[in-house]
User: Fold this.
Amino acid sequence: MYNYIKHKLGDKKDKKKKEEKKKVPPRPLVAQKSLTVLNESRTEVVAEKIEDVYTFGRELGSGAFSTVRLGTHNASGEQFAIKIIDKKNVKQDLHRLAIEMDVLKSVCHPNIIELKEIFETDETLYIVTEVVSGGELFDRIVEKGSYSEKDAAMLIRKLIEALDYLHDKNIVHRDLKPENLLLKSKNEDTEVKLADFGLSKVLGNEVLMQTACGTPGYVAPEILKAEGYGKGVDLWSVGVITYILLCGFPPFYNENVPALFESIINAEFDYPDEYWSHISDDAIDFIDNLLVADPSKRMDAKAALQHTWLQGNAPSTPLKAVQTKLKEYNVALKESKTSMNSENPLGL
Ligand code: ADP
Assistant:
């Protein structure tokens, strides 16, 4: 009986409590939400937090200023890659990026990672893109049983086709480097996918310059001279990447950063005989027409696609020594990336 009364009384108390709770006016729904989708108006609040829209999975990789994680879209079950950037690293006003979202989202090409959406909260930027499973291109090349100049030419052709498409839409990548060359799947060696287009707009020139300082130079002379960021900057980077693909080390390298910059600005590089004597003249001519200091004299994407080296006749002789050298370079790349993640990336 006692228990019964206690139970009943308790019930009443609970009811009273619940009623008191009800009297507190609910906060307006919008004020509680803070995940905004970046579009032209920049006002579309979609949820309280990213986890309401995507469920995070494993880490896919990390870069100097970001972490990339697998994300499953809660509504559709579809998987994406979500790049998470601390806004402290975003030096730009995002307004310009917001205005260009329509153009960026319209990019649809077999060799370019598609952008789905960009979200922001007060502290973080989330870039949602297509996910690929093949890993980084350089990792795959060093693991490959055999690799030839023909393979390199095929990859470079696809990369330039992707750039030609972006350049026609007036999109300049501006941050082309091996880490941005991913492969579609584990069993496709040649389906290269270009990542991170549009990101340069998020990070701004200052951060890009910092990245350029911390990693061996893929960056064009005109960027170092702060003389502009036209489409030519991407073709310069293709020249650097092609050089590395054919010998396993970069054309511009110096532990001393000012000296490195100097050699890039003057396009001072060579083809040491020991590594280049067996590479075709066409390949060398192709690089010579990309690593040109004056951007107006550099091949553009369309001219590069017409170059003899990209017409399918490059030699298919295995480049075993290149794979070994590239392996060493790749290890150094990963190490420099780790140090870029530290507090003081430039060691200053
Ligand atoms: P950052 O530009 O900050 O250096 P990256 O774009 O290089 O960062 O991304 C870091 C790593 O995350 C990549 O090297 C790659 O291994 C992985 N990654 C990036 N985007 C994707 C994607 N769309 N699908 C799968 N893995 C990805």
Observations:
- The pocket of adenosine-5'-diphosphate is lined by residues 60-66, 68, 81, 113, 129-132, 136, 179-180, 182, 195-196 (CB under 6 Å).
- Confidence is low (pLDDT under 50) at residues 1-13, 26-32, 341-348.
- Residues 137-334 form a domain with the Transferase(Phosphotransferase); domain 1 fold (CATH 1.10.510.10).
